[in-house]
Amino acid sequence: GSSCEKCDFETDLCKALHELNLQPGWIRRNGRSGMGPPYFDHNGNNSAYFLSLSSEMRSSSATLRTNVFLPTDEEHVCQITFHYWISQMSGTLMVGLQKHSEDSVTNIWQVSEELQNQWKTSTITINSTEKYEV
């Protein structure tokens, strides 16, 4: 509905992602950055920006956190669609859910693929009776 927010990283991190929660390892870049693939975004645009893990991050993980979302119900469904690219370094991309009353993050989606070298799209639906972060 009207609450949909597109996050394309063209000018900065979108409102949904904490600026301060961009942990070391994530960089905002485009296909012209000279950092290797991908050389374009999911629309084939080589000047469009996306977030990328820096090559120094080979052996560890880096997290992106959203702002706090309000509880979901029949009227307010939360659906997040995102585009991702996994390059020659094998890795796991995970989406976690942290509810306000819980300390731990629950893994709700993950993919482990090697050498895809293509953009893929995923949509996840989130249900939570309390405030949460993703």
UniProtKB/TrEMBL annotation:
UniProt domain MAM: residue ranges: 5-134
Chain segments annotated as coiled-coil in the UniProt record: none
One GO cellular component term: membrane
Pfam families associated with the record: MAM (PF00629)
Superkingdom per UniProt: Eukaryota
InterPro entries given in the database record: ConA-like_dom_sf, MAM_dom, MAM_domain-containing
Alphabetical list of PANTHER family matching this protein: APICAL ENDOSOMAL GLYCOPROTEIN PRECURSOR, MAM DOMAIN-CONTAINING PROTEIN
Protein name per Swiss-Prot or TrEMBL: MAM domain-containing protein
Phylogenetic placement of the source organism: Eukaryota, Metazoa, Chordata, Craniata, Vertebrata
